[in-house]
Design goal:
The chain contains 23 helices and 20 strands. Helix 6 crosses helix 8 and helix 18 packs across helix 22.
């Protein structure tokens, strides 16, 4: 570093710089700038020395951007992502041939001169004067390293990159001063190491290790003579000498390097001549970057992790600050993804829904009590090549995290209504008349003190045989719409939306849940992650935990590693244990005797709910065991293809129900995810059956056993022979729904 002496004089390096006339050197070293007239030269020199002294004493040396590795919870690699593909290595791990080759071709007097090579400057000036143009430059390896630092500091900002590389006198002066500083502080070996780690070698490879892997699929320490010469030659013009796209030019350049190595005595002429006869010997490894490289279908989870990093303030106060850390890379991110659960989810998805199908499926698994996301997948794979049904849209998450506007969850929302009612004092034995068809009761109390008071709006059950009275137990098992409409009308809309908020349930598009009794039938668009995590609240006996995807992060900066702070799940009580246990008792009946029998698990306790929206644009199954909760959605993301008269996964459906399509996906997904794990039981409560009533009007004396698989307006009904109900809904009744989903959803 250039420092003033204690007596006030300049250091020897500063004296030398002034003696040489910094602007003269700057002008000469600039590739292509001719010497100015003598008068102008003097003026430039005076001003430039002053500028030299005014520069900050220390050059900013940003950590080199490196690749980031994303791991699953067991330490397996999910994907590698990077802004710049670079792996920093010590000089001892770089082939001696490579070290000699880069010095020979870029700065053969590197070990003899200081930061500025005066002999090289004079040689370049003479050569350029003879040619009348720019025949030779004179930047030392140290100066080139400094320029690369400027470029690295600029990051991916095109304006800053342009400023870092512009051919101006001011930039060259800064380059010269910092080159002097670097020479004093680092020494030749460290400068060479840093240079080889920072330099761009083309083909997205930054640094010699990445370049060696890209072109030869080997480590930099194993490069031979001709391979080293090839890489050293690329540096001057990575596009012109790209061996992948122009073998002829790359070969000429390699041979130029070999000849130069012979001239400076690094190799004999015979060795150089023999190496010139060798083919390039490329063994190219394609760049592998980004979530598209993720294994086990975890591309969308990988993308979710990136979104978490870029949006959570724990990683930086501003979006720009967070992006800078992400692009700098060097991160090792251990996530919550469970490889067993992820593999099971993808296997089940692949088995039941084909990529080529008109509709898609998305599935998510979370851990109750922790919020950890264990699996996330979908039938349309992560891709950006416009292949049929490839997408980068994460169908499992909210719009703000890379997803879409969501999908109406249908009757999977009903347990939230039930939880609100029970928490507020409604007994689980509550009975309502529940006719096949009825008007929405009005008025209904809203949160803001107003009332919903639409008249003549019809709602119907899935089939005409579903006529009450029903208790909550049987109405939940059969997914009886008219029961739940009466229930929300009794307790009001506000307790339901408040319970939803406590359970983390929100619209996927970020809008507020609308104040209308139709929400009982699942008319507000949600994401699979939201629904899975909400049901995890039931599984954890009323404790809601925010979803998390990251377990830990370490960042490598230079030769040091440090741990970064990560977002933590926050847990809060959404309902009493008794309320949650009551819901589990109700939903256990759904998979045992109700609309979700095809989703039931063998040998372990499970609970869940089916859901199908109006016009069958979406079908759901959301369920849980005491140790895992999962959601499966099936539908057309564009909300155009109704699921009637359709083939899904090679199976023909006259009509799709939540129980016959999402249900089996959920069953197989959860079975594999839970294999080998404990099988705890629920804390069930006693819900007495009501007295049997032979005058229900449907000829069905099932009492409260919920045993009719054909019931439930939820579309989760396993019998697909029942007629679709027809009921009219006034225009704008479902206010605030997102585009394409305004026609009601939530039939059950």
């Amino acid at each position: 570093m250039s420092k003033k002496r204690s007596g006030g004089g300049l250091s020897p390096t500063q004296q030398a710089a002034k003696f040489l006339g910094v602007s003269v050197l700057a002008g000469a070293v600039m590739a292509g700038i001719a010497l100015p007239a003598a008068g102008a030269l003097g003026l430039a020199a005076k001003g430039s020395v002053e500028s030299f002294d005014e520069l900050p004493a220390n050059m900013k040396t940003p950590p080199l951007s490196q690749r980031t590795t994303i791991l699953d919870s067991k330490g397996g690699t999910i994907a590698t992502v990077y802004s710049r593909d670079r792996t920093v290595v010590d000089l001892k791990n770089i082939s001696p041939y490579m070290q000699k080759a880069i010095v020979a071709i870029e700065d053969s007097r590197f070990y003899q001169h200081g930061a500025v090579d005066l002999k090289g400057v004079l040689r370049a000036l003479n050569k350029n004067a003879q040619s009348g143009g720019v025949a030779q430059g004179a930047s030392t390896l140290t100066q080139q390293y400094v320029k690369n630092v400027f470029v690295e500091e600029a990051g991916d900002d095109p304006t800053k990159v342009a400023q870092a590389t512009q051919q101006t006198l001011g930039r060259k002066i800064a380059e010269l001063k910092y080159a002097i500083q670097v020479e004093e502080e680092l020494g030749k070996k460290k400068i060479l190491e840093n240079y080889l780690n920072i330099t761009f070698f083309g083909q997205q490879a930054y640094g010699v290790e990445a370049a060696s892997q890209r072109y030869f699929s080997k480590h930099a320490k194993d490069l031979d003579l001709e391979q080293s010469a090839l890489l050293a030659g690329i540096v001057q013009s990575p596009s012109r000498y790209d061996p992948v796209n122009d073998e002829t030019e790359a070969t000429k350049r390699r041979n130029t390097v070999l000849q130069r190595m012979a001239e400076v005595g690094d190799v004999s002429q015979a060795e150089a001549d023999k190496a010139k006869e060798q083919p390039l010997g490329l063994k190219v490894s394609k760049p592998k970057n980004g979530c598209i490289t993720a294994v086990k279908g975890a591309g969308f989870f990988c993308d979710y992790v990136r979104e978490v990093f870029l949006t959570d303030p724990v990683f930086g106060k501003t979006q720009e600050a967070r992006a800078k850390v992400w692009n700098q890379g060097g991160l090792t991110i251990r996530t919550t993804l469970d490889p067993q659960a992820q593999k099971s989810a993808q296997n089940s998805i692949k088995e039941h829904v084909y990529q080529k199908d008109d509709v898609a499926t998305a599935a998510t698994i979370v851990q109750p009590g922790t919020g950890k996301i264990l699996a996330m997948g979908q039938s349309r794979p992560y891709g950006i090549n416009n292949k049929k049904n490839e997408t980068t849209l994460n169908l499992s998450v909210n719009q703000s995290m890379g997803g879409g506007a969501g999908y109406q969850p249908g009757s999977t929302f009903k347990p939230i209504v039930a939880a609100a009612a029970i928490e507020g004092g409604t007994p689980a034995t509550q009975i309502y008349p529940s006719p096949y068809e009825m008007d929405y009761p009005a008025p209904v109390q809203e949160c803001n003190g107003g009332v919903w008071n639409e008249k003549g709006v019809k709602v119907a059950n899935e089939n005409e045989s579903e006529v009450g009275p029903y208790s909550m137990k049987e109405a939940t098992a059969k997914s009886v719409n008219t029961y739940y409409v009466q229930l929300i009308s009794d307790i009001g809309i506000c307790p339901v939306t408040e319970m939803a908020t406590k359970m983390g349930v929100e619209r996927a598009d970020g809008s507020k849940i609308q104040q209308a009794p139709s929400i009982a039938l699942g008319t507000q668009e949600m994401s699979p992650l939201t629904m899975a995590n909400a049901y995890a609240t039931f599984a954890s006996r009323g404790m809601y935990c925010t979803p998390v995807a990251i377990e830990s992060i370490t960042q490598r900066v230079g030769e040091q590693s440090k741990s970064l702070q990560i977002p933590k799940s926050t847990c809060s009580r959404a309902m009493s244990e008794t309320t949650a246990d009551t819901i589990s008792t109700l939903l256990k009946g759904v998979v045992e005797d109700g609309t979700g029998t095809q989703a039931g698990l063998s040998g372990r306790a499970s609970a869940g709910k089916t859901g199908t929206t109006d016009e069958r644009y979406a079908a759901w199954f959301v369920g849980y065991t005491p140790n895992m909760a999962g959601a499966v959605w099936v539908g057309d993301p564009a909300h155009k293809r109704k699921m009637s008269q359709i083939s899904i996964g090679g199976v023909w459906h006259d009509q799709v129900f939540g129980g016959d399509t999402p249900g089996p996906i959920w069953r197989d997904m959860m079975s594999g995810a839970l294999e080998g794990k404990d099988a705890p039981n629920f804390n069930l409560v006693n819900i007495p059956d009501p007295p049997k009533n032979d005058d229900k009007g449907d000829g069905n004396d099932n009492g409260n056993n919920g045993g009719n698989d054909n019931g439930g307006n939820d579309g989760g009904d396993d019998d697909t022979t029942f007629p679709t109900p027809t009921f009219s809904i006034p225009e704008n009744f479902f206010q605030g729904t997102s585009n394409g989903n305004a026609n009601g959803g939530g039939r059950g």
